[in-house]
Amino acid sequence: MTRPIVRLLGIAGLTGLVASFTLGAATLPGPTVDESRSEKKTESVVLAGGCFWGVQAVFSALKGVTSAVSGYAGGSKANAHYEIVSTGTTGHAESVEVTFDPTQISFGQLLKIYFSVAHDPTELNRQGPDSGTQYRSEIFYTSDEQKHIAEAYIQQLDAANVFRTRIVTKVAPLQAFYRAEEYHQDYVLHNPHQPYVAYNDLPKLTNLRAEFPDLCKGGK
């Protein structure tokens, strides 16, 4: 379990800096292709973008999101366990299952937050201090419409050159999602002073509230 060691020790000496450090979020255009209006009240998608702690915290904070669950996608049930997934050999990606009400927040709006605040979509098989295929950027769609919107938005962002390099996010159908161990659920909420969380995840929430105040629970 190398990652917890990195999280707890690798940045422990930066605690003083953390208090005033904030990562910058990318300012992105909205998607030109988004969901058509419908009466359905529940939809879900699984998003992978590095450590699931911060990704879960971001999507849990949004209006219209009824559930954000940390877990694993892209591999089998037999080895969907943190200690095994952390070896990078199982095919899983640390992911978050986001369940939302599309009448309150659209899939396109979720993607804008995913690409701008939740993670860096130009990093291949890594995010920040974490490296390995389990930290890859991937959208596991649950409908053909989601697939179309995600692929169109990636093409739009690449064409606009909003990032310094091209987006490496994969788009694939969801085969299965496996809920992670309970101690990973709402980890940022329960461990805000943990050095890794303070340095890597809390700035995401700061950026979320600054960039998307109208979409945040308790916001405008």
Compile the SSE list and pairings:
Elements: H1 2-10, H2 15-18, E1 43-49, H3 52-60, E2 65-73, H4 82-85, E3 93-100, H5 107-118, E4 126-127, E5 130-131, E6 137-141, H6 144-160, E7 170-173, E8 177-179, H7 187-190, H8 195-211
Parallel strand pairs: 6-7
Antiparallel strand pairs: 1-3, 1-6, 2-3, 2-8, 4-5
Task: Give an overview of the whole structure.
With 220 residues, the chain is of the alpha+beta class. It has a single domain (2-215), classed as Peptide methionine sulphoxide reductase MsrA (Peptide Methionine Sulfoxide Reductase, Chain A). Helix content is 35%, strand content 18%. The chain is built from 8 helices and 8 strands. The chain has helices at residues 2-10, 15-18, 52-60, 82-85, 107-118, 144-160, 187-190, 195-211; strands at residues 43-49, 65-73, 93-100, 126-127, 130-131, 137-141, 170-173, 177-179. The protein has a 6-stranded mixed beta sheet. A two-stranded antiparallel sheet has the order 4-5. A hairpin with a 2-residue loop joins strand 4 and strand 5. The relative contact order is 0.24. Residues 1-23 have low confidence and may be disordered.
Mean pLDDT: 90
CATH fold name: Peptide Methionine Sulfoxide Reductase, Chain A
Report the CATH C-level class. Answer: Alpha Beta
Oligomeric form? single chain
- Major β-sheet annotation: 6 strands, mixed
Low-confidence stretches: 1-23
Counting helices, strands and paired strands, the structural category is: alpha+beta
Describe the structure concisely.
This protein has 220 residues and is α+β, with helices and mostly antiparallel strands.
